[in-house]
Design a protein that fits this description.
The structure holds 2 protein chains of 2 kinds. In chain A, about 35% of the residues lie in helices and about 20% in strands. Chain A is α/β, with parallel strands linked by helices. In chain A, helix 5 runs parallel beside helix 6. The N and C termini of chain B lie far apart (about 55 Å). Classes of the chains: A alpha/beta, B alpha/beta.
Amino acid sequence: MPFIEIKNLRYEYYQPGCEDESSPAIKDVSLSIEKGSFVAICGINGSGKSTLAKSINGLLVPTSGKVFVDGMDTADDSNIWDIRSRVAMVFQNPDNQIVSSIVEDDVAFGPENLGIDPAEIRRRVDDALTQVGMYKHRNKGAHMLSGGQKQRIAIAGAVAMRPECIVFDEPTAMLDPKGREKIMKIIRQLNSEGITTILITHFMSEACQADRLIVMKEGQVYSDCTPMEFYSDGELVKGAGLELPPVIELRERIRQHGVDIPSTVTDENTLIEFVEKYR
Amino acid sequence: MAIEVKDLQYTYSPGLPGETKALDGVSFNIDDGSICGIIGHTGSGKSTLLQALDGLIKPSDGEIIIDGISLTDKETSLVDVRKRVGIVFQYPEYQLFEETVAKDVSFGPSNLGLEGDELEAAVRSSIELVGLDYERIKDKSPFELSGGQKRRVAIAGVIAMNPGILILDEPTAGLDPTAHKEILSMVKRIHETRNIIIVFVSHNMGDVADMCDKVLVMNEGRIILDGTPRYVFGQKDVLDEIGLGVTPAAEIVGRIRERIPEIDSDVLSMEEAAASLAEFIKRKRS
């Protein structure tokens, strides 16, 4: 049985006073996610990717269809604590997620709510802060930290709950390139330790680090394959309204200059090999 | 209108344990009608510089002259400065507060004394300039718009004050690729229509090379490079050293040149890279 199973999910936001906004955020999505996998979700704004993410840990309950986490139905109220202790979420803006003024208090918030023994909480908080490289900042005020550091605290808060799965909803959108790299390193590390990882992102370089890429468009799954398969198909990428990877864009432009460059050129190495033939 | 900055210094918490020198002898000029990019890491002093340009902070030393007015002169009224300089902060959509889009965009110009038809005309033209339909959107609540639309409304609120200098601090941060492109073409449109100075802060080297005619590179409170995109992005070693890198096209071509040095090194955009590689292949083939 897959860890997450979504069957014919439909979700409509009720918007008071906006009768014309009745088109559902998610129309009909069915997919399953295996334990331990690293799945990226891409798509332009309004494609339904955040709605999909929030449906996974029961923040949103399907309008119709079913979402199962580890076999538990998210629509069943009695499951909600079990589901949220298995699936944690990290949002785009850490300021929306940090609740305490001191770093270690904030990280302890999740496990405290799970009713865990204080000595165990201490251990988990220390472990989680070490994992994100923020242990030495444990006694600082959260407001004294940079955006990237705050995001690492938010991740530590999720990690301290020892979830089986973490859903990251554009965790690096507000960070600079260096901060983004650090967060991605932590995400890869967590996944290699067995945490099922779902990463929503606009950055192709981040999506390419996943094993599988689900692209959403207009509330439906537009494509579901490996990042390599998706990004090497220029037409597919354009159809989703996404940006082409630099090498693919270059390949398409070289073609427009009348050079017959094969579709097997998908990354820097294959491009270099191709050009070298003419040396 | 032009910007002249001479030997600017700024220190946060002077004399306290957290003392930090954010600007350390910054000097540069920006000519009338220029789009000037500023790149640099978080903590390089970009935000401090932007705030100084709008008179939000007073530099400890040095001079800023905008349109012949010295910002650093005690006699200068800040209203005169802010009429000339419009600043759009990161995530400007968080600044929206009014009941309707039209009221929100009116806030700035009405504070500068505009009213009646004149005010409405300023609001209408700015909303249209950012690419929104004035009649359809003016009575909507800004909070029911999409992220990209909200951001454009916030930018309209600044350009409605008709500034001669528009500062945009990472205007595309957090947007999806489609909205990203829309914001860039909006910036170009504002520049063409109003012919004003635009100061464009970004982490995206491709965008900076594509949009700007001048680039300033900041590191540890100093300007370490100042010139055209072609000059600045030609200094790969300097940029690599501070961890900034060049444009994606130059990056790829640089890697190919390690193997085939005869390929043209002077490329900035994808189109130039494609033209150069296609030319090389065709020449070798014949």
